[in-house]
């Protein structure tokens, strides 16, 4: 590796870095994800989930309301507070300065 030429090729601007990131992200396959989970010792065994009854949630919420003085908020309003929050962005086609 020649120090002058190769060192310059390692410098990226933000747009180049983002493009490389998108390329790398799009190369991740379901097999890769499955191998990561297997390596972390997660299993594919799905167990039954026991759900809490609504009455128990309402009773617990009544205690929270007393303790933290949030009487004007219902349990369902509290649970749905962040239901409209975006947690991901749509897939971008070609990344350009206009869509950043």
Automatic annotation (TrEMBL):
This is Uncharacterized protein. It comes from Dryococelus australis.
């Amino acid at each position: 590796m020649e120090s002058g030429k190769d060192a310059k090729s390692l410098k990226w601007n933000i747009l180049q870095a983002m493009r490389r990131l998108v390329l790398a992200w799009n190369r991740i396959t379901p097999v890769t994800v499955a191998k990561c989970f297997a390596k972390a010792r997660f299993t594919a065994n799905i167990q039954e989930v026991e759900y809490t009854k609504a009455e128990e949630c309402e009773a617990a919420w009544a205690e929270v309301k007393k303790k933290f003085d949030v009487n004007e908020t219902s349990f369902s309003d509290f649970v749905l507070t962040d239901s409209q929050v975006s947690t991901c962005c749509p897939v971008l086609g070609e990344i350009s300065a206009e869509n950043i």
